[in-house]
Amino acid sequence: MTLFSLQKFKISMKQKNETTVLVLALVITLGLIGSIYWWFSKGSNTKLGSFIKNQSQPLELSNGSTFASIENVPSGLFNYGGSTTWAPIRKVVDQVIQRDLPQFRLRYTEPTYGAPGSGTGIKMLLNNQLAFSQSSRALQVGEYQEGRQKSSPLKEVPVAIDGIAVAINPSLDIPGLTIAQIKDIYTNKITNWQQIGGPNLPVLPYSRGQKEGGTVEFFVDNILQNEKFGSAVKFIPTTTQALREVASNRGGIYYASATEVVGQCTVKPLPVGRSSDQLVPPYKPPFVPLSECPQKLNHLNAAAFQSGEYPITRRLFVIVKQNGQTDQQAGEAYASLLLTNQGQELISKAGFVRIR
Q: What percentage of the chain reaches a pLDDT higher than 90?
């Protein structure tokens, strides 16, 4: 073989080797891609489509410090509604939003029928009466399903922490109640305070109606564990009226958002525990005697709410449409505003506990 032929042969072999390496690399790459696809679609509970969707959520909640740091806040008038628990937040936070972002106009909208509450607000949202809603409970399965059927899936964004406090008449001397005892009171298993170390006095339990708000729905789900209210329970339309009843009746008991109970001057908030030796007050110790009210007030036990030491806590949610329209932009903007440091400070000022 001539020198020229030998060189030509070496070049040819080199090219073949390079081609083989490239083919092998391509096969390996395709194999890896196929394996990843198989893992997502077959070998994991997370489907590939869900994974992609979860990695590209449109709402990136802000870590900004002020309302001015939030981008894409829409202009216009936006109706919202829902939970009565949110009333202190609406009073404190929304007026600052209107001051700092005058183009983002908000209007609280009452339901055309029924009492305002988390459930009615979500129903109004699904019926396109609201741009977004406020809720003191998580979305229910039926609400998720209805949103998907109407091509407007709903998303809940937690923005604050609240607790459920139990109020009794100030003259009733008991150290506190366990969750089991609260359940037994509201299902008629405990009918006299003497059964749990109190005086020989009938228990007079009060509640709002089960369809009148997220607080009652939360109570039924988490305290009564979906049992029915007992026949002794007297249903009162509003928390204000219920607290008046408890203040007037020595055997009275009522539950509500801690912000509506702890700072009152006419009823006594009770420590609550998972067991009788783990009673935790919803107020910041030590208890301020009601005789010093209103010059001095009891305040929320924020540390116990944040840590979960207090046993009856929940999150407050902004309910947002996921329909790619201006309503979605408004709901996401509102949630992002509340999650800024400025928003969280205002939530704390309104009597709730920061989630951040």
A: 79
